[in-house]
């Protein structure tokens, strides 16, 4: 989509490591943080529980669009616990770890999600 990826990290399914990394990116002013994995039902799927308490705003419309698109492709998408919201001025989207699910999510997000950045900066609707 022509976006510059300023950082990419793989971290274990440990709440303290997930939180520390996301918090550091938020404090650095990263506009968009996308996590992949930790949204399932397994005992080590902790990304959503780790980040939800940090959200100052949930983006239910983004979550619903992702769920709807995924369920149109594969029935098991209803088992995902993906999440989207704001932490500070950073937009955080927690996607499933499946490469196919992540590709599907990007079909939903790009380019529409870019409209959010002008709104976040107080520029209103463009």
What's the layout of helices and strands?
Layout: H1 15-27, E1 32-36, H2 47-51, E2 57-58, H3 60-73, E3 83-87, E4 90-95, H4 99-109, H5 115-120
Parallel strand pairs: 1-4
Antiparallel strand pairs: 2-3, 3-4
Q: Outline of this structure?
A:
The chain has about 130 residues and is of the alpha+beta class. It has a single domain, classed as 3-Layer(aba) Sandwich (Molybdenum Cofactor Biosythetic Enzyme, Chain A), CATH 3.40.980.10.
Overview of the structural elements:
The protein is α+β, with helices and mostly antiparallel strands. The chain has one domain: MoaB/Mog-like domain (Molybdenum Cofactor Biosythetic Enzyme, Chain A). It is 39% helix and 14% strand. The protein has a 4-stranded mixed beta sheet with strand order 1-4-3-2, with helices on both faces.
**Name given to the CATH architecture:** 3-Layer(aba) Sandwich
CATH superfamily annotation: MoaB/Mog-like domain
**Number of structural domains:** 1
Q: SSE string, helix = H, strand = E?
A: HEHEHEEHH
Q: Biggest β-sheet, characterized?
A: 4 strands, mixed
Work out the radius of gyration. Answer: 14 Å
Write out key terms for the chains shown.
126 residues, four-stranded mixed sheet, 5 helices, 14% strand
């Amino acid at each position: 989509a022509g976006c510059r990826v300023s950082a990419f990290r793989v971290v274990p399914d440990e709440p303290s490591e997930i939180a520390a990394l996301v918090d550091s990116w938020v404090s650095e002013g990263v506009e968009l943080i996308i996590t992949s994995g930790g949204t399932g039902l397994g005992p080590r799927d902790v990304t959503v529980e780790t980040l939800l308490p940090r959200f100052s705003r949930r983006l239910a419309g983004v979550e619903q669009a992702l769920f709807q698109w995924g369920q149109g492709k594969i029935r098991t998408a209803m088992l995902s616990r993906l999440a989207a919201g704001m932490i500070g001025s950073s937009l955080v989207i927690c996607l499933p770890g499946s490469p196919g699910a992540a590709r599907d999510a990007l079909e939903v997000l790009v380019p529409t999600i870019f409209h959010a950045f002008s709104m976040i900066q107080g520029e209103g609707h463009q």
